[in-house]
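Per reviewer request, we include the raw input and output of the structure prediction for the construct analysed in the revised manuscript.
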Amino acid sequence: MTPSAATAMDNFYEYANAVVQMQLPEYFYTMWVAGRMVPANKVHPDDRIPGTVPDCRPVNIGYAERRLITRAYFDDDLKDTFIDILGPVQNGCIPGGLSITALGAQIALNAKPEFGIIKGDIKNGYNEVKRESVLKAMRASGKLGHTLAFMYALMKPTAYIGLGAGTRMTTAPFKCSEGQHQGAIESSWLFSLAVNDAFQRHNARLAEHGGAMMAIMDDNYTIGNQAIIFDSMKLLKEDLE
């Protein structure tokens, strides 16, 4: 590495530390969380059944530098803290979580063929989760106080939203004041934390009868005694509202 490159890296490290330690003006964070919204089709047009409506949803793409710095911020220690809080229900934040959930459901039903399984989804959960509920969950955890100020800085601004890309980008007629940015490093952790208490209560009800809940972020699976899983799902829905 050349001396000038080394100096640039040192300057960037200093800048990144200033960002996460809340040493920059408030307007900086308003700029930093701006994004552009693009439509994302979950099914390729060639694979869509003719005559069906495309399953298209908005995805907010944030600043690349933000992803770089927040990825470093969420180091192994911080991720382990979140995993400790979210376990054993939330598998979306752990390596191999999708396989663990799929195989776990299959093994559970093989062992207990009389059990039922319900697949749930918190519709538009990322976009609608209340930021206040995220901050309350962080405080209530008792383990995330050192991250609270930086996460608050990312959620406080009413963020600019652009539409399109490049020279064709235009300003959206609205701004982002609630929810989490899909694709942002911190979003999955914070969303999972906001719904964690409701998920854990649901899991505890199922566990009393040998069942369990598993989740991949907002997608979730309820496995248990068919006599109680539907009533518990109703309670989960009420808990999340």
